[in-house]
Amino acid sequence: MNLHSIENVCETFMGAKINAQQNSGSEFVRAISASSHCMYARSQNPLLHPDLLFHMSSLGRQQARYLATVHATSKEAVEERAQQLLHDKGWRARIPILDMLIELSRNDKDYGRLDVREEIAAMLIVEKVLMEQKEIFGDSDRPATYRDIQEMKYLEMVIRETIRLYPSLPVFGRKLQRDFDVGDFVIPAGANVMFLAYQIHRNPKYFPDPEKFNPDRFLPDNVMRRSPYCYLAFSAGPRNCVGIKYGMQAIKGTLSAMIRKFKILPGSTPLSLQYKIMLGSRTGFKIRLESR
């Protein structure tokens, strides 16, 4: 799924087809993966937390090389798209986000380019998802439109509950801009604070019976009764994930296409979680597909 995500992001944002799943050994794809591993390794070694020590270390130099590859490829894509836009004035059915940013940078000089648990319950959930898809598409196998995706309310609840239990980013940090009082303690400005989304999402105060998979937690009324800061799947506040809507649309579109064609069944390999910047599985995510 990581390679699939890379493909989606590159095509949506840059209009570039990199075929990451077929070309997983390409320099660009390997650089993205390797730089993530460097970030994880640094987070596990307190001696490498200071920027100066990290940049002087062999790990820091490795990350610099990988990031240079990513940045060079990205810069090349930006410049290539910018040149194409100078000559392409016609109507386009799909406009990559990069194109929008380039146009914005031209019009706004201040905006730069740099800049599973109980079986019965599980079956009912699956049937609800499938019923929703049939209500939207009937027997048609056409691709989902933007309006279709907006109608997938229950599927979105299922996705949000899945991400509650298994957030892509289980830990993230913020740097305090001012002193912050926590009970009898004061965390000083400039300190780095870590938020443990994986644990917060399992707090029974906000999510009763937290290990139970229950999409109804995300019914509008239930969401309104909770603090918006107890669900941090996409972070929160002014520095939350800028790709929330894009990510949800991409997941819903991909799952919709699969659900309508296949029964998605669990594989034989148990899930073995591991954390390396993002939450993953040591054994992969193995599933079985049966044609409907």
Automatic annotation (TrEMBL):
Keyword Oxidoreductase in annotation: yes
Membrane topology reported for the UniProt record: Peripheral membrane protein
Keyword ATP-binding among UniProt keywords: no
Compartmental location: Endoplasmic reticulum membrane; Microsome membrane
Record-linked InterPro entries: Cyt_P450, Cyt_P450_CS, Cyt_P450_E_grp-IV, Cyt_P450_sf, Cytochrome_P450_Monoox
Keyword set, alphabetical order: Endoplasmic reticulum, Heme, Iron, Membrane, Metal-binding, Microsome, Monooxygenase, Oxidoreductase
Listed cofactors: heme
GO cellular component: endoplasmic reticulum membrane
Residues reported in the UniProt entry to bind heme: C241
Gene Ontology MF terms in the entry: heme binding; iron ion binding; monooxygenase activity; oxidoreductase activity, acting on paired donors, with incorporation or reduction of molecular oxygen
Family note: Belongs to the cytochrome P450 family.
Function: May be involved in the metabolism of insect hormones and in the breakdown of synthetic insecticides.
Protein name, UniProt field: Cytochrome P450 4C1
Originating species: Cryptotermes secundus
Lineage, top ranks: Eukaryota, Metazoa, Ecdysozoa, Arthropoda, Hexapoda
